[in-house]
Amino acid sequence: MKFSIRDLLLVTVIVALVLGWAVDRWRLAAKAESEAAEAVRWRRIAGAFEEAFDAAGWEVTWTENREEIQLNQQLGNGQGRHIGVKTDFFEPGNKPAKTFVPDSPAPATFLPNP
Fold this sequence. Notes:
- The chain is α+β, with helices and mostly antiparallel strands.
- The protein folds into two domains: 1-56; 57-89.
- 45% of the residues lie in helices and 17% in strands.
- Strands 1-2-3 form a three-stranded antiparallel sheet.
- The termini are far apart.
């Protein structure tokens, strides 16, 4: 059985297409897995912030479509404070991490975002 140059080129093109498709699928799957892990990480960070605000006496609620976070704090004099933060405006910052010492006698402080 003889193979012509045309047959070899056709097989080469088919193999190249299949390999290109397989590499593309592999990259897409790796990217989707990475983005899913990043989404889980950010959900945990948001949950940690909710817990921190709750521990400081703030009630944290999200609007139904998750476009705004509402923070409410009841003060001892019968009044309260309310903060609404739009979630489509802020990006995570690259500030250096501060060490939190759980047994520290100093109270936790929350500074406004400049």
